[in-house]
Structures are given as structure tokens and as C-alpha cells.
Amino acid sequence: MLLLLLGRGHLPGSVILDTLYEEYYYNMVAQTTYYLLTGDIGGTNSRMALYLLGNRTALIVKTYRNFDCMTKKEDGIFQRNIIAPFLKFCWEEIKNISPVELTEIISCLAIAGPVKNNKVIMSNLHGIEISGDDIAGHTHYSCDEESTRYLQCIQVCKVINDFVAQGYGCLTLKREEVVELTPGSLKMLDPKGPKACVGAGTGLGECFLAPDELGVYSCFASEGGHVEWAPRNDLEVKLWKFLTNKFAHHQRVSVERVVSGTGLANIYEFFAQEFPKKVNQKVQAEFMKAGDMKGKVVATNAKKCELCELTMSTFATAYGSEVGCVGIKLIPTGGLYVTGGLTPKNMNWIEGKDSHFMQAYNDKGRVSPILENVPLLAVMVEDLGVRGALKNAQSEYYKFEARKNAKISRTLSYTGTTTDSYTDLVSVDVKSSCRVNEMEKEAAYYKRLAHITLAFTSGLVAGLTFMKSKK
User: Using alpha carbons only, what angle is made at residue 259 by residues 333 and 336, rounded to the nearest 5 degrees?
Assistant: First the structure.
């Protein structure tokens, strides 16, 4: 290509360099395949999924148990033990997947915990830090060569709160994926009203959504699961005292200590201590061996163990009460969604006007009538976090492409200048433009290579001409 261009003596050197660079860039773009990587990382599991750009159906989904994969606080442990193995699994299992060398990945991770500076410290999992900037910046922390090869495909990694993802996921729900807890809720939904989500899983998550003037919803994070829990009877007052001693907070107990998978374990421990003669020894032995799955033992034994049944009714009462509190605080006429992993698994404790959940939900004294206008829906699917992460990953891809195209056009327009001289022309978030910077470095490298090749070829041609003249 270079020799053909040099043969056209009328072409200026700068045009030759531009042509070489443009060909390199557009050939590279034409061969690139984009994938979206999503993760719904809760306290117990990390649910990972890979999508071909433009396709809402996952190519592959795989769930990892966090306590098996992230056993201690260690830099990059999430990249090494979950992301890299998952990507390797994808490239082994998916037919006709693009070669790694021609792949770019845009990722969004929905993680349990407050997000700050595109990172989350997982307080319920050894204080492990997951940083989107480190992942996209290819800070691998001593990954092996094969893992690094896969991780280098990731160009952008956006970290969002797991319940922000749940909120965006609620926007995708179909009628058959929800159950009306308040009769007529689907008909009551206000298409322009605020929405809220409350969901019990390993912990208790909450979020709310508000529409703009065009009716487009934005979701906002909340740590409402950590507000104070209020006991409702004398036995629960004893539970409150038990929990204040257990967690060394002598003035408060958060709702999450009761309304969550770990909350089920806390409640059962109290009842086993309070009523030792009612302990089912077989269930007790199973409970003690269950590790982080103690809540599941309680729920599955509720029909044959009196203390498990009492635990479930206490849990459901506290759950319904907290959802009702969110209802009267926000009045979410666009829908109040009860989500989380524990909801579809325990509908017998939630559904029905006489259930422990619904009785506590509606028991709001003189302001109880407010809840009559709030559509209350139980979500029966467990992939809302993945759906919300996908929605955000798609948005990140569009931003990535816009930044990249803007910078490339500037590069082509300002040939001969350094990248530093035009970066101020495009306003971008520096931390999320790792791939743009890499492409600029590649562009500079290929331009330098073109200069060297041009000089070498010119010298070669001059030498041959000189030798021919000597003859």
C-alpha cells in the first residue's frame, strides 16, 4: 500500500500518512465485534451474563457463589476468580464467537453496596473492593497470561448499585411476571408516577425511580434497608434486645438484621435461645452446618418446625411493615415493587389480605388509606438485576462509541498535532475513556511507524536511483 502511494508522486506526505492511518483504523473497526458483559453481584451470588451487542437474549449466563470464589479481601480477586473464568467459559462454550483479538467488551456490574468513584466496597463480603476503573484499566493484580488475554477485551466497566439495577429492571416487567398484592394494582399504575422497589435477599435493598418531563425514568440509589427496625410486640422487643447485644449497637437495630436471608438466621437464633424446649434437634443440626445458607434452612423447615414457622411469620411481618413505610414515604403511584430473591420463594407468607406481610403493610394507623392508591406488586422473576445492568451496559456502549468517534475525527482533522493538543476539544469523563486513550496510543504508534517506513522507503528509492545513475 505504501509503495503504491509513493508511486503517486503528486500526493503530499501528510496525505499518505492520513490514508495509511484511516485504512488501519477503519479496517480495525470493521473487524471488531462488541459484546456486553453484565454482572448482578449480591451478597451470596454473582450472576454473570454475556450478550452480543443489540441482542437482549443472553448468549450465556452463569452463577458463581461468592463465598466459594471470593474467600478473602485481596486486590483483583473478583477479576481473577469470577470475570476471567466466566469469559474463558464463554469462549469455550459459545459457537461462532468472535476471536478474542477482535473483540471489545462493554461491561456493567450491579453490586450490593454504596457506589462511590465507580467502585463498591462489599461490607457483607470481607470488605472486598470492586473497581470498574481497575477492571477497564486492565489492572489485573498478577493474573495469569490467559486470564489477562480475556480481561484486556474489557474497554469500559460501569459499576452501579445492585438495587439501581433492580429499579431499571422493573421497567422491563411484563404482566405475567408480577402478582398483584393489592387487588387491581395493574390498572392503578400511573405511567408518569414515581416507582419504588423493596427487596429482601441476602440483605435488604431499596430504590426509587422518578420520570423526567418526557416520562423517561431515572433510578436513584438508597440505603433504606439500614434504617431502624421497630418491634411491634413484647416478644419482638426481646428480639430487639437480643440483636442489639449480638451486634453491639445498643441503641438501634437496622431493618436488614431482620428482613433478609441473614435476618432469618438472626431471628431463629433468638427463638432457639428464648424457647430451648421447642428446638427441633434435626433442624438445629442442619442450621448449624448451613454456613451462609442458614436462612434457607429456616424457610424450608417452616412446616415441620415450630420455631422456623415463628421465624417466618416474624420475618414476613417486618417485611410487610417496611414495604408499607416506603409506600407512605414515597407514595409510588407508578408502582411499589416487592423484589429480591426471598419474595417469589415465600409467596405463601406474603400474598393474601390476611397474610402476615399484608396485615403489617396496611397497618399504618390514620394514614393507612394512602396505601389504597399505591399499586403493590410482587415480582416473580429473579433476573431484574441482570436486566438493569444490561440497560446500563447498552448506554455505556453508546457513550463509548460517541467518545471514540469524536476523538478519531479530531485525530484525522488535526493531522500532525499531538494528542495532547486536542483532548480539550472533547469533554469526556477521563476515568471512563480508557479505550479511547489506548486507541490514541495505537494511532500515535502507527503514525510513527508510517513515518519510519516512509523515510526508509524514500531512502531505498533514492539509493536505487543513485545506483542506476552511476551505471
Answer: 10
